Amino acid sequence: MSNRTAGPPALTPATLLAEFRRLRSRSRAIFACVHEAAFLDRPIPLRHPFLFYEGHLDAFNWNTCFRHVLGQPSFHLAFDDLFARGIDPATVQGTPEYEAWPSRAEVQAYSREVEARLSDLLERATTMQDLPVPLQDGHVLHILLEHEAMHHETLMYLLQQLPPDCKTPIAGVLEPDTSEAPPPHMVDIPVGIARVGARPGEYPFSWDNERPCHEIEVPAFRIDAFNVTNAQFRAFIEDGGYAHAGFWDERSIAIIRERGHAHPVGWIPDGSSWLYRDTFTIRPLPESWPAIVTWAEARAYARYRGLDLPTEAEWHRAASGDGQTGPLQRGTVPPGYGNVDFLRTSATRVGSHPEGASPHGVHDLAGNGWEWTSSPFTPFEGFAADPHYPGYSADFFDGEHVVLKGASWFTDRLLLRPSFRNWFYWHYPYMAASFRCVERSSRSNPT
Q1: Domain 13-166 part of CATH 1.20.120.450
Q2: Where are the domains of the chain?
Q3: Which of 82, 128, 248, 338 is packed most tightly, with the most Cβ within 10 A?
Q4: CATH match of 186-440 with 3.90.1580.10
Q5: For residue range 364-379, what is the model confidence (pLDDT) as tens digits?
Q6: pLDDT, tens digit, 9 for 90 and up, residues 398-416
Q7: What own/partner pairs with CB < 8 Å and gap ≥ 24 does 96-104 have?
Q8: Cα separation of 435 and 299, whole Å?
Q9: What is the DSSP string of 355-410?
């Protein structure tokens, strides 16, 4: 019996409206976790306060769809501009400061108006041809949907850094498993072709950095069947891994010294043991969970083992074999297939979803942590920026951002497709980013 469900429903205004309402309901549930007094808090100095994101979701929808595509006049230009774009500074010094934010009531009034206009636009249309011509192919509307889904993750890792007495947990999610992890081992991936990127029409939507689809010949290699666990990373720490200069480059050593600690940001020293900052609580370190670390920390651990991080193409080979038949297929991952789509609000024991393993026996590719690769975030040959969001990818082709693949427990089902590429600074410590190691059978290094 197949554990696949039917693919995504046909594209209509009604299905788009249903997706918008589903995502907006989750956005409200996340904002409801933040206590009112904490809405102007910045638990991560590299990000805006929560209030910004409450305005940003609808300012983005207005600016992208109504203002730029449909050419409608603004009803609140100041908010259109104030909440237009988030930030991704490399350092705190690059973070803008604002003397005063508007009241939450003002922001919510603005958001309600934009939400009502978008809902009305979709409600009045029976078919896609009833929409304004620039919206009839659904591309712009999918940009709005996936943008909101991505910010659910932003908000959740902001929540993780907020003190426990400033937030309320989301109800109705599964408890994580902290039982012993299965024995770590590596699996062999034979030489073959990795198909990277999205073909035209393959998915209802893809971002510009996912195109064009292309094939890469990948030599044989071995890869961890499970993500590196907290227990494995703890052994690296206790073996002096942070003090061993051979595992780190000069920039990584500088970051370690700047931050003044020698452990992942979510770990809290507790005598001879460790505590762990989970999304809504602080608990004893769950040793069977994937280690959530920066790219620099992941690479140092890989060097400690005499291994490397997988390239983007190697990750595709491990995930999908000779086709796109692995665990990431947009809209088709059933409940329990992986720790994804807010099934939980925490990581869980590695290998907890064997039904989601790849054809080669690689586990947890659909959830339980984005996975660092060794590939810088660069455009594919033939890249063309999206005319409706030209800076989405191109602004980050700077050599400082690294590709991540897979999904986390906060990744929405809309983003579950093999071609999706996430990216972050190599030293960014707050997102739900895990990793696994590879051993190559040759000196080649596929990209």
Answers
A1: yes
A2: 13-166, 186-440
A3: 338
A4: yes
A5: 998 999 999 999 999 9
A6: 999 999 999 999 999 999 9
A7: 101/40, 101/49, 101/51, 101/52, 102/55, 104/36, 104/39, 104/51, 104/54
A8: 9
A9: GG--TT-----SSSEEEEEEEE--PPTT----TTSTHHHHTT-SSSEEEEEEE-TT
